[in-house]
Amino acid sequence: MDGTLLPCTVANPRGLRRQAGLVGGGNLPFPSEIASRNFPASPNFAGYYATNDYNAAMFLAHELASPEAVMTPEEAQESVQLLRTLIQRLSAAKNTSAEALKKLQKMAGDIPDIGSLLFSSTSMPGTLVTVGNMAAAMSKSKSVVDLLDLSPADKKKLIQWASERGKASSTSASKAFKGKIKLIRVGGQLHFEVPVTAQAQSYRVLGQVGSQVAHIPAYGTRAVLNNRAMLHGHGATRGLKLMTGAPVGVALAVLPQAYVDYSSSTTIEEFYKSSAYSQPINVLSFASGALVSVALASLFGAPLVLVLVVGWGVSLAMQYYMQGSGLDKMIGNNLTK
User: Fold this and answer.
1) What is the pTM of this model?
2) Exposed e or buried b per residue across 271-296, where buried means at least 16 C-beta atoms within 10 angstroms of its C-beta
3) Domain assignment of residue 305, yes or no
4) Which of 196, 231, 266 is the last residue of a domain?
């Protein structure tokens, strides 16, 4: 390269002098010149970005399914709950296409260990109804004082006596109620024996189920009156009784999967084969949960909310066990021989 012919640039338009950084005839600049240069800063991508429900749900499903994701148990639980909420919201949205929702549910269903149990399209109806039943049973709780068979005036007097008990101006129970409420000893401690209403027969009142009276301690009475009484295992009425009954449970356990198997089959034989592998896990899971629920309700008089939670948990555990052990495939092989 001829040293008299130097490249023309903005800094050297005539090409009469050497320039730093040029290939061949360039000169190495001084360190002070390098230090004084302004280098562009690396872009910062941190911050908050707006997104919609669908993209957020897809991100959560991908993150939960990724083996490289590092999350604490608390973070994973929060992500699962948020994903369930988003899927429910998208299912009810008018602008969500069936194809997009199906893709999302498939991604959620592929999450290891929990996907098929919590996000499968065939388990979603039963899950939603179970959660709704739990919320309905919880909302029907009542204060103990509301279930006592007393007039409003006597309830007010009982609450007032319980609030003033121990003060200098308080009166004895026998003087305050003048025989309207019986004062008895239970286990060496004074209790009020108060009749309960007919509605109380559906509730677990102070640990008792089906009792005609409530035994309220004469000490700490105010706190006991404010205790919440929950529906017992067989205490559901009307719509809640129908939704927690065996017929609805069987339908929710079997029919969604049957519809999916039927839609994807072209012959009766193919439908039978698909059902042989998919339905045993649903039937056995429902049966195990139902047996535990009946035992809790009948033998222990457990609250309905607890019965639903435990029964649901046992059903999920049975599904997890059958899938993990391959028992569902073993049963399917035997039924299709």
Assistant:
1) 0.66
2) bebbbbbbbbbbebbbebbbebbeeb
3) yes
4) 231
